[in-house]
Amino acid sequence: MKLRNRKHLVVTDTDYGAVLLDSKSGQYWQLNPPGAVIVRTLLDGEGPDEAIRRVTERFDVETERATTDVHALIDAMRSAGVVEK
């Protein structure tokens, strides 16, 4: 998996997680704290398995739930044209 338009993606921390901005398209997403960890992991060049590990390490969440959440966010980002396989 790789992030398309990576140089156009900007993540800014907020009091409630983060905001992901695609400065090329103008689209943006409000991310909760686990979502922010997932996106930062992907921007670091890591894949879903590492994102799942980081989420379960930082938050009180079961691996099964983290797996579902990670893949749901990746699917949403893929639909938005930000992530491609």
UniProtKB/TrEMBL annotation:
User: Pfam families recorded for this chain?
Assistant: PqqD
The cross-references to InterPro entries, in alphabetical order and at most eight, read: PQQD (IPR008792), PqqD_sf (IPR041881)
Q: What is this protein called?
A: Lasso peptide biosynthesis PqqD family chaperone
